[in-house]
Amino acid sequence: MQESELKALVSLLDDEDAQIISHVEEKIISLGEEIIPFLETEWESNLNPLVQSRIEDLIHVLQFDILKSKLTAWFEDEEGDLLEGMWLVATYQYPDLELQKLRQDLEQIYYEAWLEFKTDIHPYDQVKLLNSVLFNKLKFGANTKNFHSPGNSMINVVLEGRKGNPISLCVLYMLVAQKLKMPVYGVNLPNLFILTFKPENENYSQFYINAFNRGLIFSREDIDNYIAELRINPQDTFYQPCSNQDIVLRSLRNLVNSFDKIGDHSKSEEIKTLLQLVSKGNDLGL
């Protein structure tokens, strides 16, 4: 379609006839993601607030379709890269966010940790060294003042603001730890996401880390007590590593709750749509 034809199509977005508007919007959406840069240019040059609003809605629909496609593909890959999965979650709010920028930011944090890291010390001491870098030197920590902010589930916001929720802080911790060759993995506990250090060396025992509490180290017995307080039956998944897909699913569920808490129910429903898409009929856990 020629640019003149596209401009003519967009000019019809100020029509008062609902049927015409619907037809125009369907036509624009059918053109796919290639039309987004043109729509953005048209938005900048158009002085009609109603048309601008309709263009914004169209861009969002197109970007949401892209996200659905990319997220579905990521979940179908059993070896899906965790940072890429968290990047896809963040692109819901920040569609122009670049994965390479996140990798660079993470690389800088890893470098800070690598400077002080030692491979020949007890796992507890390795964790304490990493804790010191992340929580003391770099000032990462729990966002207790604004716990339900959707930004707490957006990895770019956490990297920039240094504040997050249990799962985003665990993701950051885990990504840096694994780059340091530490056997650190996510664990799905009810109401709390934690980490486990699961050494291959039989001389050391498995233990757990609470990144939301500045890397606090605790034991399996502490999890037993936690489960007992919740009055639920223990499950193997409360003690063993979960998959990257599990982590991204939990991040999406957190986003549903966050948007609901701040009253943005339309965004909550869209995230539910993503969950239904990638859960393949399984319980969404909401």
Features:
single chain; 286 residues; alpha+beta; four-stranded antiparallel sheet; elongated
Structural features, described:
The protein has a four-stranded antiparallel beta sheet with strand order 3-4-5-6. The protein has a two-stranded parallel sheet with strand order 1-2. It is of the alpha+beta class and 286 residues long. It has twelve helices and six strands. The protein has helices at 3-11, 18-30, 36-45, 49-76, 82-90, 99-116, 123-137, 155-161, 166-179, 220-230, 244-261, 265-279, and strands spanning 141-142, 163-164, 184-189, 192-197, 207-210, 216-218. α5 packs parallel to α11 and α6 (99-116) crosses α9 (166-179).
- Helix amount: 55-70%
Strand and helix order: HHHHHHHEHEHEEEEHHH
Question: Using DSSP, what is the number of strands?
Answer: 6
pLDDT averaged residue by residue: 93
Largest sheet: 4 strands, antiparallel
- Spatial order of the strands in the main sheet? 3-4-5-6
What is the overall number of helices?
12
β-strand percent reads 5-15%
Brief summary of the model shown:
The protein is α+β, with helices and mostly antiparallel strands and 286 residues long.
Q: What is the secondary structure topology, with strand pairs?
A:
Elements: H1 3-11, H2 18-30, H3 36-45, H4 49-76, H5 82-90, H6 99-116, H7 123-137, E1 141-142, H8 155-161, E2 163-164, H9 166-179, E3 184-189, E4 192-197, E5 207-210, E6 216-218, H10 220-230, H11 244-261, H12 265-279
Parallel strand pairs: 1-2
Antiparallel strand pairs: 3-4, 4-5, 5-6
Helix pairs in contact: 3-4, 4-5, 5-11, 6-7, 6-9, 11-12
